[in-house]
Amino acid sequence: MEFRKATRHDLQAIVEMIADDELGQARENYTIPLPQTYFDAFERIDFDNNQELTVVVDEKDEVVGVFQLTFISYLTYQGGIRAQIEGVRVHKTYRNQGVGKTIFQWSIQRAKERNAHLLQLTTDKQRPDAIRFYESLGFKASHEGMKIHF
């Protein structure tokens, strides 16, 4: 497995993975060709130096995993940087083979390289298996997250 920056060419595989579960099917629009909104979002992410959309590829350069790291500067923690990991997906044929754990190990190292003092994530409460997985990696449910959709 190799980690590399995602390209526009990877978008179809990425969107297919984020739409490949019950929650994703309800909110994503995985069609071929992909809607322009995904390409627009990719351009915004790619342009922002505090965003890293990364893919994991196999020996044939086929996308088997994806995640996004966001580096957030803020004043607390003496002007610290926190890293947020989002959109972690592993292709269904590669699940339960250690790819997810490898993604998090790589992400923790990358966050440290960018001088972040913590790596945080949110997960849907409807994903109990994911919650157990994150806890097995050492993540703690230290805060209660809240959202408002517009």
Topology, element by element:
Layout: E1 2-5, H1 11-18, H2 22-27, H3 36-47, E2 51-57, E3 63-73, H4 76-79, E4 81-90, H5 99-113, E5 118-121, H6 128-136
Parallel strand pairs: 4-5
Antiparallel strand pairs: 1-2, 2-3, 3-4
Measured distance between first and last alpha carbons: 38 Å
Give the DSSP E fraction (strand runs of 2 or more residues): 15-25%
| DSSP summary, beta strand count | 5
Q: What would the principal axes of the Cα set say about the shape? A: globular
Cα-atom radius of gyration: 16 Å
Largest β sheet strand count, sense and barrel closure = 5 strands, mixed
By DSSP (H or I, 4+ residues per run), the number of helices equals 6
Kindly identify the CATH topology: Aminopeptidase
Low-confidence regions: none
Q: Give the overall average pLDDT.
A: 94
**What is the CATH first-level class name?**
Alpha Beta
Oligomer: single chain
What structural class do helix, strand and pairing data support?
alpha+beta
The side-by-side strand order for the widest beta sheet comes to 1-2-3-4-5
Q: Would you give an account of this structure?
A:
This protein is of the alpha+beta class and 150 residues long. The protein has one domain (2-136): Aminopeptidase. It is 36% helix and 24% strand. The protein has 6 helices and 5 strands; from the N terminus they run E-H-H-H-E-E-H-E-H-E-H. The protein has helices at residues 11-18, 22-27, 36-47, 76-79, 99-113, 128-136, and strands at residues 2-5, 51-57, 63-73, 81-90, 118-121. A 5-stranded mixed beta sheet has the order 1-2-3-4-5, with helices on both faces. A hairpin with a 5-residue loop joins strand 2 (51-57) and strand 3 (63-73). The model has no long low-confidence stretch (mean pLDDT 94).
